[in-house]
Structure formats: structure tokens, C-alpha cells
UniProtKB/TrEMBL annotation, chain A:
UniProt keyword list: Cell membrane, Membrane, Transmembrane, Transmembrane helix, Transport
TM segment ranges: 33-54, 99-115, 127-150, 162-182, 203-221, 233-253, 286-311, 331-349
Recorded superkingdom: Bacteria
Protein name, per record: General L-amino acid transport system permease protein
Family: Belongs to the binding-protein-dependent transport system permease family. HisMQ subfamily.
Chief localisation class: membrane
Keyword Ribosomal protein in record: no
InterPro entries recorded: AA_ABC_transptr_permease_3TM (IPR010065), ArtM/GltK/GlnP/TcyL/YhdX-like (IPR043429), MetI-like (IPR000515), MetI-like_sf (IPR035906)
MF annotations from Gene Ontology: transmembrane transporter activity
Automatic annotation (TrEMBL), chain B:
SUPFAM superfamilies: P-loop containing nucleoside triphosphate hydrolases
Domain ABC transporter: 14-248
Protein name: General L-amino acid transport system ATP-binding protein
GO MF annotation, one: ATP hydrolysis activity
Source species: Malonomonas rubra DSM 5091
């Protein structure tokens, strides 16, 4: 309500807030005896943990040396990462062709970063994606322009992880939305199909799906017919993630007030227009936080493909550690991997928070 | 019952014959018969639970009736989805809780139906939208989102949204019940303007002042039946049924 200021009444200034470091400390860390106690205990614990870690990680450590040099030091041997970086990142991709997966990854990252801005979501971008994906596929597989063919069983390391998780998310999301809509359908056949699918997939672990896709599924194929192993793992990941997305989206659909459907109906919009223009934009926005949770776990779950003998970035690291020269530096190698995963996950979740803010319309 | 319909000779724009509706076993609407002529303004009142909202919601099939006929502008409402969509595009509806689309701007709320249902080009749809926003005196808010407007402003936007579809009939389902007293008047003023322009209106409301000054016919419903209908003068000064008298004594 924009009422004019009333000249007959007095407007007081808000009480002054104390500022400065001392005031902040007193307000936040020492405002009661038990908070003061907790502050002191926390400081003691930090004092006990941080300096030794710092000494191990940064002072006594070696960053790029031979494995032998690492034998003589107390601290971290970070050298394991730069010394083996090619194998950790690219795995078994053939010698001399390394530029291809690297270029493909850069292209994917560039496309993802370019697509971040909502203002760039237009026709041009809709063309850039398929073209980009075809180029990436060509770079990885080769076979033309003098690039030797690299079979998918040699795809490994970070490109494999990125591929499995990127397509896992991008394909699972629309499939999940369709399943959620199907589960709400008034047509019993469609509804039952979706419910059975969702509940079945959610009832089994991803590992069992991967096993089925890699061991059982080929048994049912006619003789001589094979389907690529990476593709089978990819499909398993997509089908698995979609079932979880479907349930989250269903939650969003249920949160929509009936009035929104009625308003759309009373304008004469069809079912698909109502869903596309009114319901889904709002419902999907509500469920951004849980959806991102699922996408993040899908990303991390791609490391399970190791059980069907695909070499994702976690497996290539493990293989590196089996090299007798580098055995014993697993902490350092896993810290590196943790940082790598963290960067990807943090980027996704901070992007989702920004997107949520951008889509907020004050209701 | 006294009939006060203007130009009685022409075909009614809404015709309801022997309509019944049940919610499960509960008989909500019983033997509803109603003819509405073009340009007629009807106010429907009655205690809560009397079925007045349900009745007007049947007219654009937000509720399904199980027996009888509802014919709107020559199209009978059946299970045929095409018929339903035709009727809905011709019948505007204003809700108690506005039901604007919160993720779209005011302007987009108004152009959506025109663009997707009427297939109007975007530019023309925006011109129409701005014209109606002027009319409900809210044009300066076009770029805002519904959540940034007051209740009265939102309800005026909702009216403008329906008008953009160039409806033959407007249904109002308690349009002022969710509003602060200060905002009721701004919404009623818009509705009065609309009535003066000759729009066919069915209004469920408890605003008896509005009924007295605008309605051609006032209808009283109780327990799922139309108990009494008359011109406002006779309805308020000389109600026929005991139930109507009791109701009027309680709200006036």
C-alpha cells in the first residue's frame, strides 16, 4: 500500500546497530556462557588440527618431483598428480591422440558456460548444442579427417565421467518430467506403466541396473548383435536417474494450487498448453533444490561404472595407485579427486541457486 | 417467478435445462433451470454451501454436471473436449482468489490466452492487453509480476485477462470476497463499467449494493436449488419465500 507519509506523526530513526570487530565478536561468539565455551573449544580444536595439516600439505610437501624424492619427506607427495596426470585424466586413450578428448572436454565446458545466461537461450543456442555434440562425438570416435578410430572401450578417465554424467542428467531430466506427468495421467494404462516403472527402478540399486545392462541384457540379444558397453551403461544411468527426477517433479506438480489449472482451463488452454506454459514452469522452479540434489548424486554415482569394467576418473586414479612406485600416496591422489568432484558439484549447485534467484518473481 | 429478461424473443445465450449434479452421493445441485439472455446481468446470492459457485462453474465445465443440459451460445457441454474448449474461450471467469499466473508479468498474463487460444499475433495481443489494462486503470503495472500488486489490483488484472479473450459471457465467482474493504470498491467500479457496456454477467456475490444498482435479476439459491428470482426491486422489497426473507434479514 502506498499511503502518503502522515505529516502529523513523528518518524523515528531505527535504533543504531553496533559495529566493529569487538561488537561483532561479543554479539555472535560470546553472547552467553555456553556460546563462549563453544567458541573456546572450537578454537582449541582448530588449533590442534589446522597447523599440522598445513605443515603436511604445504610446508613439508613436494609438488612435482619423482616418486623417489617423495620417500625422504614427511609431508604430502602431491607429485603423484602431475606425474600421472595424463593417465588419471585420459586413461587408455591412445598415445598421440590426447588432444582429441581434451578438445572435446573444452568444447563441452565452453558450451555449458555459454549456456549459463538466460538471455542467450535462443534459436542459435538450440543449434549450437547438436552441432557441438556431433563435433565432440567425432573427436572422441574419430574415423574421419585422418583421425584413427578409438573404440569406446578405450574411452576412460575424465571424458568418460563427464560424458556419462552430462548425458545422464540431460536425458534423464525430460524423461523424468514425462514420467511425472504420466503418473498423474487419468488414463489408467499410462498411469500404471509409469508407476510400475518408477517404483521398480527406485526399488533396485544402480549397481544392479549396471550389472543387468552389461551382463544380462546381452544374453537376450540375438546372436552376433552387440550394443556398445558404454552406451548400455549410459542408458542404465539415464533410466535410473529419471525415476528419481519423476518423483521430485511429481512433488512440484502436487504443490500447484488448483486455481492455476482452473484459470488456465477457463481461458480455453489445452492440456499440453496448460502444462507447458502454466504448470511446469512453476512446478519445476519449486523443485530446483531437490532436483539439483538428484543431479549431483547422479554425477557422483557415475563412478559406479567401475564395476562393469569401465575406467572412469576414479578408476584411473586407483590404477595409478597400483603402480608400485606410487603406492602409499593414496591420500594425496584422493584429495585431488575430491577437489575435482567438489569443483564440479559446487559449480552446479551455485548455478542452480543463481537460476532460482533469476526465476523468482516475488510470490 | 417474475421474468424481467430484456428482448425475450431472441435465443438465450446460456440455457440450463433440468441440470443435476452430485459430489459422490451428495446431491449438490437439483433441477436447475436457467435462461440468460444476451446482455443480462444476474446476481446470484445464497448461504455458503448452497451451490451457487458450483452452478456457475458448471457453465464453463470447471465442474461436470451429471444430468440435464447446459447450452452456451449454441454449444452443448458434453464430454467432447473440443466443445468444452470452445465454450471456455467464450466464457470469461473471475475467481475469488484471482488465480493470476505468478511466473508471468501482468502483460504476459493478458496476452497468453490471446496468443495460444485465439492465435492472435503477439503485437496485436499486446495492444489489446494494454487497452484493457487502461480500462481497469492499471496500465502502469504492465511489466510487474502479480506478486507485486495489491489484491484489488490483482483482481482488476484478472478481469482484464478475461476481457482480452473477448468473451460473450463473464462469470464472477465471489470476486470481492478475498479483498480488504478498501479494495472492494475499485473492483466493483470496474464491474459496474462492464455492466454498463452491455456485457452478459453472472455474478456470485454478497455485495447487495451492487445487486441493487446493477442487476437485471437477482437469484437466491439454497440447498442446491434456485429458490427465488426476481428483479432487484421486488426481490429486496418483497421477497416471496420464507427462506429468502430470513437470508435477507441476516445480511442487510
Amino acid at each position: 500500500m502506498n499511503q502518503p507519509e502522515n505529516p502529523t506523526r513523528e518518524y523515528l530513526a531505527a535504533p543504531v546497530k553496533k559495529v566493529g570487530a569487538a561488537a561483532w565478536l561479543k554479539d555472535n561468539l560470546f553472547n552467553s556462557w555456553y556460546n563462549s565455551l563453544l567458541t573456546v573449544l572450537t578454537l582449541l580444536a582448530l588449533g590442534y588440527i589446522v597447523p599440522p595439516f598445513f605443515k603436511w600439505a604445504f610446508i613439508d610437501s613436494l609438488w612435482n618431483s619423482s616418486a623417489d624424492a617423495c620417500r625422504d619427506i614427511e609431508g604430502a607427495c602431491w607429485s603423484i598428480v602431475p606425474q600421472n596426470i595424463k593417465f588419471i585424466i585420459l586413461g587408455f586413450f591412445p598415445e598421440g591422440q590426447e588432444w582429441r578428448p581434451i578438445l572435446a572436454m573444452i568444447l563441452l565446458l565452453a558450451l555449458v558456460i555459454y549456456s549459463k545466461e538466460k538471455s542467450r537461450w535462443n534459436k542459435l543456442l538450440a543449434w549450437m548444442w547438436p552441432v557441438g555434440l556431433i563435433i565432440m562425438g567425432t573427436l572422441m570416435y574419430g574415423g574421419i579427417f585422418g583421425m584413427p578410430v578409438v573404440e569406446t572401450d578405450q574411452w576412460s578417465g575424465l571424458p568418460l565421467t563427464m560424458m556419462l554424467s552430462f548425458f545422464g542428467m540431460v536425458m534423464a531430466y525430460p524423461l523424468g518430467v514425462l514420467l511425472a506427468l504420466g503418473r498423474q495421467s487419468k488414463m489408467p494404462a499410462i498411469k500404471t506403466l509409469c508407476v510400475v516403472y518408477i517404483e521398480m527402478i527406485r526399488g533396485v540399486p544402480l549397481i544392479s541396473l549396471l550389472f543387468m545392462s552389461s551382463i544380462m541384457f546381452p544374453l537376450f540379444l540375438p546372436d552376433g548383435m552387440t550394443i556398445d558397453k558404454v552406451l548400455r551403461a549410459q542408458v542404465a544411468i539415464i533410466l535410473f536417474t529419471a525415476a528419481y527426477i519423476a518423483e521430485v517433479v511429481r512433488g512440484g506438480l502436487q504443490a500447484m494450487p488448483r486455481g492455476q489449472y482452473e484459470a488456465a482451463d477457463s481461458l480455453g488452454l489445452t492440456y499440453s498448453q496448460t502444462m507447458r506454459l502454466i504448470i511446469l514452469p512453476q512446478a519445476l522452479k519449486i523443485v530446483i533444490p531437490p532436483t539439483v540434489g538428484i543431479l549431483l548424486s547422479a554425477f557422483k554415482d557415475t563412478s559406479l561404472v567401475v564395476i562393469i569394467a569401465l575406467y572412469d576418473v576414479l578408476k584411473t586414479t586407483k590404477v595409478t595407485l597400483q603402480n608400485p612406485q606410487w603406492t602409499g600416496y593414496s591420500t594425496e591422489a584422493y584429495v585431488f579427486l575430491a577437489v575435482l568432484y567438489f569443483i564440479c558439484c559446487y559449480a552446479m549447485s551455485s548455478y542452480s541457486r543463481r537460476l532460482e534467484k533469476e526465476l523468482h518473481t516475488g510470490h | 417467478m417474475t421474468d424481467t429478461q430484456p428482448n425475450k424473443s431472441s435465443e438465450p445465450i446460456i440455457k440450463i435445462v433440468g441440470m443435476h449434479k452430485w459430489y459422490g452421493d451428495f446431491h449438490v445441485l437439483s433441477d436447475i433451470n436457467l435462461e440468460v439472455q444476451e446482455g443480462e446481468r444476474i446476481v446470484i446470492c445464497g448461504p455458503s454451501g448452497s451451490g451457487k459457485s458450483t452452478m456457475i462453474r458448471c457453465i464453463n465445465r470447471l465442474e461436470e454436471h451429471q444430468q440435464g443440459q447446459i447450452i452456451v451460445n449454441g454449444t452443448e457441454l458434453t464430454n467432447d473436449i473440443k466443445n468444452i474448449e470452445t465454450v471456455r474461450a467464450e466464457v470469461g471467469m473471475v475467481f475469488q482468489h484471482f488465480n493470476l499466473f505468478p511466473h508471468l508479468t501482468i502483460l504476459e498474463n493478458l496476452t497468453l490466452g490471446q496468443i495460444w487460444v485465439r492465435k492472435t499475433p503477439k503485437k496485436q495481443a499486446e495492444e489489446t492487453a494494454m487497452m484493457y489494462l487502461e480500462k481497469v486503470k492499471i496500465a502502469e503495472q504492465a511489466k510487474k509480476f502479480p506478486g507485486q500488486l495489491s489484491g484489488g489490483q490483482q483482481q482488476r488484472v484478472a478481469i482484464a485477462r478475461s476481457l482480452c479473450m473477448a468473451p460473450e459471457v463473464m462469470l464472477f465467482d465471489e470476486p470481492t470476497s478475498a479483498l480488504d474493504p478498501e479494495m472492494i470498491k475499485e473492483v466493483l467500479d470496474v464491474m459496474i463499467d462492464l455492466a454498463e457496456e452491455g456485457m452478459t454477467m453472472l455474478v456470485v456475490t454478497h455485495e447487495m449494493g451492487f445487486a441493487k444498482s446493477v442487476a437485471d435479476r437477482v437469484m437466491f439459491m439454497d440447498a442446491g436449488q434456485i429458490v427465488e428470482q426476481n428483479n432487484p426491486h421486488d426481490f429486496f422489497d418483497n421477497p416471496q419465500h420464507e427462506r429468502t426473507k430470513l437470508f435477507l434479514s441476516q445480511i442487510l
